[in-house]
Amino acid sequence: MSYKIAIDGPASAGKSTIAKLLSKELGYVYIDTGAMYRALAVFLLENEIDINDEILIKKNIENVNIDIDIEYINGEQVVKLNGKNVNKKIRSSQVSDAASKISVFKCVRDKLLVLQRKLANEQNCVMDGRDIASNVIPDANLKIFLTASLDCRANRRYKEYIKKGFKTTLDETKKEIKERDNRDINRANNPLIKVSDAHLLDTTNMDIDEVLDKILEMSTGGFDNGN
User: CA dist 46 to 43, 53, 168, Å?
Assistant: First the structure.
């Protein structure tokens, strides 16, 4: 039976960074669910399919295949869209925004849910997203809700965009994250929530090492659940 760690939280709270480090530290597989949504967004954008039209999306994603390779290449987990590596395409602000918009649709969430659960049941894993503990793997052995202030998260995402060569401003990035928070929290299908038995971690004034140490301590029973 696999040991599962679920990490939920809003955009740019540090979920992916922490999940990757945690999985490496524990020797677990990291399952990047956000990358799966982004890959699907890449498919829709490249095929000029209206990302606001749920009926059209459902019709066009039936035969789309998204895989996450367990093996890493150059330190990066490979995300494949219909057999092709799309790592370089999934981190733009356009794809990020599109992924957030399509994630509200039940057809999209249902398609990816099956694969996510299958991966989680096959090996010890760390999985991050927005409904991991509440929906994808509610039987997770350890549940973390990672958050940070809006300003902090906007600064993190802005620096990430600039480092990768994307043209944007801090104000635009802050607006994007605020809108994404609103969609994630208020969507009808599996909204972003903190489940009752999840550990809450506010990373606003914490560095990566501090966050990692706290979660490692939690994984050995060093902390009580809740706040």
Answer: 5, 15, 21
φ, ψ of residue 2 in degrees (nearest 5): -80, 155
Distance CA 195, CA 94 (A): 30
The model carries a pTM of 0.77
Name the DSSP letter for residue 219: H
DSSP structure string for 14-64:
SHHHHHHHHHHHHTPEEEEHHHHHHHHHHHHHHTT--TT-HHHHHHHSTT-
pLDDT at 74: 67
Percent of the chain with pLDDT over 90: 66
Residues 23, 25, 29: CA angle, nearest 5 degrees:
25
What is the Cα–Cα distance from 20 to 15, expressed in whole angstroms? 9
The C-alpha angle 213, 77, 147, rounded to 5 degrees, equals 40
CA distance 150 to 106: 27
Instruction: Name the residue ranges covered by the structural domains of the chain.
Output: 4-219
**CATH number at 4-219:** 3.40.50.300
